[in-house]
Each structure stands twice: as structure tokens, then as C-alpha cells.
Amino acid sequence: MTNQTLISVNNLSKVYGNKFTALKNINLEIQKGEIIALLGPNGAGKTTLINTICGIVLPTEGTITVDGFDVVKEYRKTKSIIGLVPQDGALEAFETVFNNVSYSRGLYGKKKNSQYIEKILKDLSLWDRKDSKLRELSGGMKRRALIAKALSHEPKILFLDEPTAGVDINLRQDMWRIVNDLRKTGVTIILTTHYLEEAEAIADRVSIINNGEIILTDNKSDLISRMGQKMLEIELHEKIHSIPDTLERFQLNIGDDQKTICYVYDTESESTGITDLLQSIKDAGLKLKDIQSSKTSLENIFLKLVEESK
Q1: Residue 47, CB-side half-sphere exposure with 13 Å CA sphere
Q2: Beta strands per DSSP E along the chain
Q3: CB atoms within 10 A of CB 48
Q4: CA-CA 20 to 30 A from 211: which of 74, 125, 286, 302?
Q5: Can you tell me the mean pLDDT for 105-122?
Q6: Which CATH number describes the domain made up of 5-225?
Q7: What is the pLDDT of residues 208-242, one digit of tens each?
Q8: How far is residue 56's CA from residue 76's CA, in Å, rounded to a whole number?
Q9: CATH code for 229-297?
Q10: Which residues of the chain does CATH 3.40.50.300 include?
Q11: How far is it, in rounded angstroms, from Cα 203 to Cα 216?
């Protein structure tokens, strides 16, 4: 099956009146039916980006199309196919769950459909609370109610802004299951998060954003393969200024102290090459003092990329 671009962001920038640049020349394509995580530290521009795609914030430069429609020029059409769950969404505290979600559907001009509302409430484990006042719900249940509201008009695309911020790990995993179930129904999902394990658990692709710029967009599987790498730090008795010719094939790096050499290897390959490396180091006349191994995680990759982008 060929990929179908559902959202296209081209040369997008957003500068506010106080000259603050929130987004800088963003280019991003999102495919139909995928889950993409916008990953970045607080203040990176994640919320501004999704609010601009949703038509809530007007871009300073660039264009955005959703299902072929321009989000500025054809706002009504794009709004009808997008659902947004904000970080702090408003709920009518004294209204019931069922009535609140039904009312949201009507706001989009959709005909009344009690069966559909029942289905999404059951999918979100809210059916037992359908007659409860929203103020009576726990924080986790309120988060589910916000998702139900966003789904009330049967959108093709769902944006989730930090969907599990401030909730415990059990509810977080429950939310991940909900997101995967929604994708199975054909909904394209874009979520912002600063939880690395969240991006790892549910995203097909990860786009890392910092200081208003996208610094990497990659398939999760490719990032996971990077996580299969480990780094071997070999401390030597004496400083070296260059890698001996006989060791060049190992693609070693010299540490800042010039007494450490670093070797990156794949833990999943048939041979790590460590035995061969250690013998070659001995043959080169270098004396080992200590050896340490550390895993290269998604978090390390993320932190390194963010640091490099500053």
C-alpha cells in the first residue's frame, strides 16, 4: 500500500508581535493512518505547531494543507476533519458526560447520533459514567472525556497535546492502548509529548523539535535500532593523539582527555568485534587501564540532538 500524505507543512514560520519566533521554517509531511510523535522539551514549539495546523494560530509564513485543503483559506473544511485534545481543555462541569459529548458533535453541524456517541464512550471506558457530571470525574476520566469530545464529529485526524502529562503510569499505558485502537479505525494521530517512552511505545515516526525547529524526523524502528548500540569506553595508561593505522577499521574516537578511546558496536549483530579490537589494541602497543560499557538509548540520542541544535 502506498503512503498517502494527509497533512503537508511547507516552510512554516510563526513570529509573534513581540518578535518572538516560535516556529522556524518547519517542513513536515504526515501520512494517512500513522501515529507520529512530536517530541521535544517544554517550550520547544510543539503546541504552537499543532495549533497552527489546526487553524487556531495563523502562520506568519508558509502553507499548511490538510487532506488537500488550505488551513487558512479553507478553514471550515479542515476544521471538520480535525479533532484536538488540548493540554487543558474546558469541560462544562455541571453537564453530564453523554450530553457534553453529544453537544460537541452538534457544534460541527453533525446530525444527532446516539449510537455513535455510545460507541466512543464505550471505547474510552466512559459508558458507565455517561450520566455523571463532569466535575465528578477523576483527572484521568476527564482526559478521556476530552478525547470523546474531540472524536464526537468523527474526525479523520486527532491531535493529542501532551495526552498523558501528569497522569500515573497505569493510566498512561491505558491511553496508549486507546490511541492504538483509534488508529485501527483509520484515524491519523499526532501527539506531542516529552515522555520518551511514550514516543517509543506508540509512535510509527518521531519528529524531534527544539527552539521552534525540527531537527530530526525518523521512523521509530530506525531509532530503536540505534538503541541497540552500545559504547565501549577503553581507558588507556597514556595519552594518545591519533588512532594507530592498524585500528582505523574499528572507527574509534578519542575522548577529550586523550586517554580514552570509544568504540560503538551493535548488541544484536552476530559479532561485536570487541575481542578482535582488544587484541588489536594490544598488538598496537597500547596499555589498557579500564573498560566500561554503556547503552546508547533513545534518551541519549534525543539529548544529544537537542544539545547540538542550541
Answers
A1: 11
A2: 5-15, 21-31, 35-39, 61-66, 69-70, 82-85, 157-161, 188-193, 205-210, 213-219, 229-236, 253-254, 260-266, 288-295
A3: 21
A4: 74
A5: 91
A6: 3.40.50.300
A7: 898 999 988 888 777 766 656 677 889 999 999 88
A8: 12
A9: 3.30.70
A10: 5-225
A11: 14
d(C-alpha 181, C-alpha 10), whole Å? 30
pLDDT digits (tens, 9 = 90+) for 147-190: 899 999 999 999 998 887 777 777 778 788 888 888 998 899 99
Cα torsion through 107, 30, 196, 45, rounded to 10: -70
C-alpha cell at 181: 485502537
Q: Is 11 within 8 Å of 63 (Cβ atoms)?
A: yes
Q: Which three cell numbers stand for residue 36?
A: 507520529
- How far is CA 25 from each of CA 90, 205, 225, rounded to the nearest angstrom? 31, 20, 29
Where in the chain is CATH 3.30.70? 229-297
Q: What's the grid cell of residue 268? A: 544484536
In 16-109, DSSP assigns E strands to 21-31, 35-39, 61-66, 69-70, 82-85
pLDDT for 237-282, tens place per residue?
999 988 999 998 888 888 888 899 988 877 666 678 888 888 899 8
Helix/strand/coil percent split, the chain, to 5: 35, 30, 35
